[in-house]
Automatic annotation (TrEMBL), chains A, B, C, D, E, F:
This is arginase. It comes from Carya illinoinensis (Pecan). Its EC number is 3.5.3.1. Binds 2 manganese ions per subunit. SUPFAM superfamilies: Arginase/deacetylase. Its cofactor is Mn(2+). InterPro entries: Ureohydrolase, Ureohydrolase_dom_sf, Ureohydrolase_Mn_BS. Pathway: Nitrogen metabolism; urea cycle; L-ornithine and urea from L-arginine: step 1/1. It catalyses: L-arginine + H2O = urea + L-ornithine. The keyword Protease does not apply. The keyword Ribonucleoprotein does not apply. The lineage of its organism: Eukaryota, Viridiplantae, Streptophyta, Embryophyta, Tracheophyta.
Amino acid sequence: MSTIGRRGIHYFQKLNSANVSAALLEKGQNRVIDASLTLIRERAKLKGELVRALGGAVASASLLGVPLGHNSSFLQGPAFAPPRIREAIWCDSTNSTTEEGKELNDPRVLTDVGDVPVQEIRDCGIDDYRLMNVISESVKLVMEEDPLRPLVLGGDHSISFPVIRAVSEKLGGPVDILHLDAHPDIYDAFEGNKYSHASSFARIMEGGYARRLLQVGIRSITAEGREQGKRFGVEQFEMRTFSKDRHFLENLKLGEGVKGVYVSIDLDSLDPAFAPGVSHIEPGGLSFRDILNILHNLQGDVVGGDVVELNPQRDTVDGMTAMVAAKLVRELTAKISK
Amino acid sequence: MSTIGRRGIHYFQKLNSANVSAALLEKGQNRVIDASLTLIRERAKLKGELVRALGGAVASASLLGVPLGHNSSFLQGPAFAPPRIREAIWCDSTNSTTEEGKELNDPRVLTDVGDVPVQEIRDCGIDDYRLMNVISESVKLVMEEDPLRPLVLGGDHSISFPVIRAVSEKLGGPVDILHLDAHPDIYDAFEGNKYSHASSFARIMEGGYARRLLQVGIRSITAEGREQGKRFGVEQFEMRTFSKDRHFLENLKLGEGVKGVYVSIDLDSLDPAFAPGVSHIEPGGLSFRDILNILHNLQGDVVGGDVVELNPQRDTVDGMTAMVAAKLVRELTAKISK
Amino acid sequence: MSTIGRRGIHYFQKLNSANVSAALLEKGQNRVIDASLTLIRERAKLKGELVRALGGAVASASLLGVPLGHNSSFLQGPAFAPPRIREAIWCDSTNSTTEEGKELNDPRVLTDVGDVPVQEIRDCGIDDYRLMNVISESVKLVMEEDPLRPLVLGGDHSISFPVIRAVSEKLGGPVDILHLDAHPDIYDAFEGNKYSHASSFARIMEGGYARRLLQVGIRSITAEGREQGKRFGVEQFEMRTFSKDRHFLENLKLGEGVKGVYVSIDLDSLDPAFAPGVSHIEPGGLSFRDILNILHNLQGDVVGGDVVELNPQRDTVDGMTAMVAAKLVRELTAKISK
Amino acid sequence: MSTIGRRGIHYFQKLNSANVSAALLEKGQNRVIDASLTLIRERAKLKGELVRALGGAVASASLLGVPLGHNSSFLQGPAFAPPRIREAIWCDSTNSTTEEGKELNDPRVLTDVGDVPVQEIRDCGIDDYRLMNVISESVKLVMEEDPLRPLVLGGDHSISFPVIRAVSEKLGGPVDILHLDAHPDIYDAFEGNKYSHASSFARIMEGGYARRLLQVGIRSITAEGREQGKRFGVEQFEMRTFSKDRHFLENLKLGEGVKGVYVSIDLDSLDPAFAPGVSHIEPGGLSFRDILNILHNLQGDVVGGDVVELNPQRDTVDGMTAMVAAKLVRELTAKISK
Amino acid sequence: MSTIGRRGIHYFQKLNSANVSAALLEKGQNRVIDASLTLIRERAKLKGELVRALGGAVASASLLGVPLGHNSSFLQGPAFAPPRIREAIWCDSTNSTTEEGKELNDPRVLTDVGDVPVQEIRDCGIDDYRLMNVISESVKLVMEEDPLRPLVLGGDHSISFPVIRAVSEKLGGPVDILHLDAHPDIYDAFEGNKYSHASSFARIMEGGYARRLLQVGIRSITAEGREQGKRFGVEQFEMRTFSKDRHFLENLKLGEGVKGVYVSIDLDSLDPAFAPGVSHIEPGGLSFRDILNILHNLQGDVVGGDVVELNPQRDTVDGMTAMVAAKLVRELTAKISK
Amino acid sequence: MSTIGRRGIHYFQKLNSANVSAALLEKGQNRVIDASLTLIRERAKLKGELVRALGGAVASASLLGVPLGHNSSFLQGPAFAPPRIREAIWCDSTNSTTEEGKELNDPRVLTDVGDVPVQEIRDCGIDDYRLMNVISESVKLVMEEDPLRPLVLGGDHSISFPVIRAVSEKLGGPVDILHLDAHPDIYDAFEGNKYSHASSFARIMEGGYARRLLQVGIRSITAEGREQGKRFGVEQFEMRTFSKDRHFLENLKLGEGVKGVYVSIDLDSLDPAFAPGVSHIEPGGLSFRDILNILHNLQGDVVGGDVVELNPQRDTVDGMTAMVAAKLVRELTAKISK
């Protein structure tokens, strides 16, 4: 349905075949990339200055939107997600207190540095290799501004690779990852795409960005998915055995001896009853409370996180899944900020 | 339902009342504004260079998204519109030829400089006065790149004021405006808001940016609306008499003796049967073909235009109104480019 | 889907067969009917006193809701319509001025006496014969309060019979009726039901309550419908010939020599593109503007009217058809009040 | 979206400022209130006589609808709920037996006294203080008719205050309350509104109408909510600890030593997966079976109850949440009647 | 979204590469094809016998469903259309009389021979060349049974090629075609597919099955579409000039000197306001009444017809577009039968 | 809403009363029945030959669609279900591996023999007695082709009677049945219909086709349902006690000493949160994972099964319930095939 993905690039391929010089193109593209990063830097800087001026925060969640949908294998609606999640976070139908009492209205708890201009970058003919670098750089610009920590709004799951790469590189070592998902996203490549949303965790494990990778909610996994899991030493918790694993998962202690914990939440880890607005409807998943029970009881220093794969084009008219995504962002914020 | 509007500002009011210095705030805000404009400039430059390199274009439509919804008096969904209109423009369900045979795939006909980062600017505590200036500056940056002409994707109708101001100032004189709308949008202020989407044409007429203003599709107008119309010499064509006015409107000749014609299309000029995805459902409007008949037969040099008030939160699940907005953008593109 | 219809009565039949005396039942039912009418009377009285106290009104539209859906042959959703139409009339998305400039906020133009408690009356085991009398009495109680004139919110179309009967009886003679509908509603009986929404105009013509009956928008009519039309001298304008009849219909002069004009608008006279929220989707109908053109140009003293057959259970999520119904009520109000 | 709330009153404020005497207004309003209560009385009387004539019932649930939505802080759709719940109770898609075998078709188990005419009362300019009294009086009129007990259909949650006040006053002492909700609704006032749906339980506790108040399903609570809870000795069971509290809650024994148990069910106590048609979507709630398990095992004399906050404007097209509300009403009926 | 298209074939390709003999496969496929045609034959025979036994019919419309969606270039939902159109034809919400008085309940006017088992044939690995032959043979089997004439329910528009081929071959010469569509469907091939729904009329013209081809409603046409039109002598009536062409089109006389008239209605000829449930939303189309005016006034012997491209997956929940398709089938039936 | 049910028969009753001989009718009907069965036979034969040629399969699931909806007491949408379930089984949004690792792409695991042409058979005036025989015969034709085992796609639940009858008769003795449902479907007759979807298990038990019948998920049951249960020795597991029964149900061992196990899954056994697209919304049901836990742990030789009561007309726009049905079919396939 969506053509966001295919468009950007072949538009510029046409230019290449015309009498437009490659040098002119590349120069212009670099100027656009530089300006994009400058804008992220300035917004992060302003927010960082404010949090520091207010004082007292050791760690502070800062939203960064990555409206990227073209690495999805099925639908590309997650490109529209970040503004919808933000709207839901501040929706008048609820208040600004998290379940355990953090006040989101306090900028020391939550700020926002806006979106990486993904669509514009692609429309300038910039390929995924460079785009992924822009995303990584953007995450690092946020982390530069102590005490800000990145809480990324997807986008499809392909964005977790550049984000976690940046977190690990910036912190100087691997992290432990708690990954909630219906799928392991660990194909070597999907339909030839190394940056596919079904391959991000293969990239992450190859890069050495994670020590432990715990995958929870898994219920759509192929032989390759299981083999790749073994190859990389992934701890895969399938839904088939969730009732047995539940006690273990509700008492996790992660991140010690490494640079901390990263939490990546794919909304399709939830049963579609709880999160219908996703591209890949896979019945038999977690309940919302299951996730909060795991999250609230998680021990460890959460250095970053993401909430991905909201597809607003499949959500209910009243945006129920956006509210679900927003509440996960809120509770992750409470976990990160201190 | 939406709280996009209220949020931005009072968040920073809170900061003001804390021990954060006003100077620090303003300096940071200025850096963010500068970086935002730099990014627009670089994207416009790249697109302009390409069109010029390809050669042969005298006038070329260039999309500029303005995702601003907070000046709406009812719903704020138009803030989500620009990416949805773009998706629909390139949707695989149709081809890239306009009704009269223009090829949209040709960059000399249509390019895109992306969105003004409206939400991020507001989230930095920047008020509407400065935001409106950023929008005007962005339009001028597009016009700087000959032969690009701005075709703006709203956003609510409040954006037409800064856009038309920029067009007129840049061209050095007034234009004629063809304005399709259910409402005259000419209140002096609406609920105290001078920048309301119901007041944009009052601002435009006061500023002297238009010689003639033709309003077509009008069917929700108060006594004040009629008085303001008279005061500013507006030519108001109400739906009540459309069957009589049709011949005149399908043979318009505008823009001679001034700097050209600007076309502003509010989607609620259409009957809600044709465009259900708008905030202000007002039965009894134009058919889609009525608008195309007016547009195709319009004689004049179209120097810019906008398509506003798409509210994706009220659209059908298959985005019918986004397709309607997209086709209006496509046909306007054909009118602008040469 | 709906069981509103069948329920009421057989519940009390069960009581009859138990050891509950018929006298006790009937006495209780009469007390409920009396109290229902007293409540309508008091509300009409209060509104009438106010309009008279304000002074200057010769005729003033007063809403009366009749939430009756059980005489529909297909779906019973119109029982839920009156509160939805009221909400749409006052919806913030539009203003309070009609197309020709009447101010609905002025109580001399529009008041509201609330709903006949149809569902409660039926739940007390009261049959349709007595219910129709309650509706007629309610209309007369409104008309008692000079200068109030009844503008009835349906409900299914069966309500037009008791309403028009009351109008004619109260005024002391027949009226002319402008009836917009996809169907003639003139079966002698439908599936044995004399009070069916498909038979109301047979009852009206038999009762001598109308001199002329003009039916506009007709496009679903059987042989019986045409024969009954001839039998009663009905002027049936079918959609097949609307383009030829349009001029005549846009220049109607009615009600002279009788007690005035009554306008009955079934929403399915509109094409379902304009009014999807109806029980009987019948493509090929009028546009909204077609109806307004007929209405605005109608000459005659409009003594009452109704807007019927809105089915909220089939409306779009944003209530587009409720908005359509509301605008028809608004424009009818302008026609009635003076 | 809805303007039900604001409208009623300021319409009459306008009258006050005109030359309409306050005495005339108040006299008319009092007549309307008296007639409204008379109508409730007569309906209750008829139903009471029937149940007594049939004999054998010690306690019998009787529905009373309170279509009030204007005290909601976000959306006002609950004003449309009572007729939708009734339709669902009798929907042909299910039978008339409750899970434990009660026959709802038996009038000794369930009768209906209809709705309090809330909208009409407000449209007569009557303020919330007097409206709340009308609601309380209506509940007492039901209780007057032995063995009827009130089972109230909301409406927003503000109605629980006048209902429980009436129950307690009529019985002559406090009750124990089982309150299922995502929110504690115990603000002292919300946005200045003492009658807000977010403040009803503050009013109830202040009035001394409850001995114990157990709140179950809580997951959106602010610091003030927790403080007010402590202040009034409320037993707050948060969802965070539901897996631990479950055993206790599935074995409740309440109401001994006081006048009985009142059960108030806010549909948003359910997770939005189970009840999407509510104004305040708050993920992480109870399952439908969780509620039934608590209810079926509750020991105590249930003297009244309510099911509130259904918002039909946010329900699925097939009315899933209305079916959920209806089943809760059915099972509560089984609990009350004996 | 749909994978109906790709699946069938490559499933059997896999078998080919396994140790399954090609002969075994082909023999089985032929048996399935023969049995499919036998079933169509027997159903047509039974219906033909009945109509002849009743006597008096010279020409009688007979429905044949072709649930084929895989030759669509965008969505494949039309594969689900035939049962939905049938349901709508007989829906209780309307009666069985056409606008001009034909009785559809009379089997001499309308019978039904059911569906070609398209999906099962494809699932047996049968390719499009043979499938198209099965469709042609099925049409001929209907025509064999005098006085039955085929009225085909699509499916996507690719089916018009095998249907019209069969009609022409069976009648022994070309027909005139009235083709209502937003697109000319006359590409030589679309994305390499000679059987694409965008190429059917190229196949028809190449085959010499039509003398005149009138295309009405065209508003999405490329340079190739216009060139192919000229090459084949097609009379293309574009929406741009419809107001001028209307008189001509409402007075058509076709089919004299050839074997009769065939009417092919693509639902996207209608504006999406009137027919939202189509795959290719193209604003600016015909109204439903426009089509009926053309059809009712068409002079000529209509020997067959089709209604195609209903996509139930994009229709409104109440199936408005299915009702539109059904009414077109009903009115076409009236045109065919005599 | 749907009229599929009533239509077929009375259409032919009309013929009977005309001058059409009963012999002619019956002969034609028999030819249609024979041809229908021949087509099923040929498709089953081809699929059987292929599976045998590939070798190695002992038991292999083969889909058979039965699009029958007219024996439903409420809505008839299940007649549209089989093609929607098939589409969902092969939807690109998921892969072809079951939770425990079976590959559905392997024809030895899953084939498809298409649909019984139920609608066409009924439209030929064939009554339910003969139709039920056609369904039974079709199932036997599948079982004829070793190693195929029938996995039936409903249709409403009335189809389980002819299917299980055929399985038992073909295998030569009773089976054990695991029946997941909100209702026991064991009325002697429902509204006089012996073939009602509410009576199928009464027919099955009377016929001696089952030794044990375990009903799981029950939560809508009348006194008659409980009595019939006792009469036939049915093991009814009600939702009220599911938390206690869970351990037993997750460790079932069935089918020993009889001909095997048959699994019949009515989608309304699931809570409507998990399966909204059903005709009978009955809150308080199983979660999707509850069913998989029972199914995955079931020990026994599964000789056949069905998934019934999907109503696509009540499903979400994205077909969530079709995905749920498809996953149940996939996991049942894994259970059957070996």
